[in-house]
Amino acid sequence: MNAAAKHELTPADNNTMADIGHRVERLGIEIADVNGVASELAALGVQQAQNVSSVTRTSGQVLDTTTKLSNSMAEAVQSAEEAERILTASTQQIHDTIHKNTDRMQELSNNSLNLKESLTSVDNNVQEVRVASRAIGQIARETQLLSLNASVEAARAGDAGRGFAVIAASVKTLADQIQGFADQNAQSLEELVEVLSGLQDRSQASAQTATQAIEDTAAATEASTQLTNLSQSVSKLVKDIEALRAPVHENIRASTSINEELSDLDQSVKHFEKQLGTLQRRADSILDISEDLMVFIAQSGVETGDTKIIRICEKAARQIEALMQQAIQQGALSRRAAFDRQYKQIPNTDPIQYFTEYVDWTDAHWQPIFEKVQQADPRIAFSAAVDVNGYLPTHNKIYSKPPSDDPVWNAANCRNRRIFDDRTGLSAGQNTKPFLLQTYRRDMGNGEFVLMKDASVPLYIEGQHWGGLRIGYKV
Prior knowledge:
Layout: H1 2-8, H2 11-157, H3 162-299, H4 307-330, H5 335-338, E1 344-345, E2 354-355, H6 359-365, H7 367-375, E3 380-387, E4 391-392, H8 407-413, E5 418-419, H9 423-430, E6 436-445, E7 448-461, E8 464-474
Antiparallel strand pairs: 1-2, 3-8, 4-5, 6-7, 7-8
Subcellular location: Membrane
Protein name: Methyl-accepting chemotaxis protein
Main location: membrane
């Protein structure tokens, strides 16, 4: 019936269908543009939702930190006030004790010095007594000598000198007693001198100790002064912390308000993100409908602007299939290598590029076909093949330049050996219909996009679906 309907179409009908096809094409382009904008909005919505959530979390952390700071400041004030109280009391107690000890030490030092002077005076008196004691001893010796002489003279005089002998004996007895007293006095004086010497030494040591104690007390007084200054510093610190608490509390109130507003904004953005996701799905659905309609019109036999591109794509796809199948049959390429899905990341590439076992072979045999396709129509911007995962091993020469250190430049000029798992890339690689028409915005890097149409034809190698051949062309 469809075949009969085709034969019954008049030239006017064909013109009408062609006109519908052009209108559908323009509609598809506009829908693709809207879809691209919706995709960007959805991505932006997700990013904004993440940013708002991050800001909300950060705001919550700031509020929590500020609250902890306020609590810490309160604790610091309490601790500082307690330290101030203890320091003030301790400083006063130390000051009073040092003052009392200073007075006592000064009195002790004065008493020690007075004792030393008294001992010196006593020592002088003892020296005078010692001299007198020696004189007494000398007198006793002379008296004894006189008594001896008197005894000798009495003995010579006989009975006439008997009275003189009695006197001589009495003088001798007196001399002996004086000598005994003198010796005893001398011994007592020596013992007294030793005691006085010890007292003088101890008095000197006490005076030195008292002097050192006074000096130490002076140092302690300085330390007490420093403690007083420290107490005053702590008091100032308390006042400074108290002055800071007011703005911190104000910050807490402001942070709480901001956090509540951010939480509301977070909920709004999440709702916006959800709605954008719905918009994206609806836009994708509309784009699918428009693309199906373009395919339907192209399959109807009516010539449209896409017909020539589809035929070029079909012809090139058959050539690629034949080349790879021939290589497998001749042993130039193993079937396992032809379906290698172990994508090995190429170091130091941004965007990331990957290597597979068949890349060298496809560069040598596919790239010449892609170059001819690119020259077949002025609208064609590129041609390349992607596997079912969107991996694009070989591209046109203009898009296969060696990577540089500039990721933006690489995104536009190093498009081979990359995985394009976006909607268009995956659809082209996974499509099993005779052909697929898609309209999309091509990312050229550096925030630039170009509206493109994509015609793709599936590739089968050894009866297995390998991927699809893509031709990107200007609208």
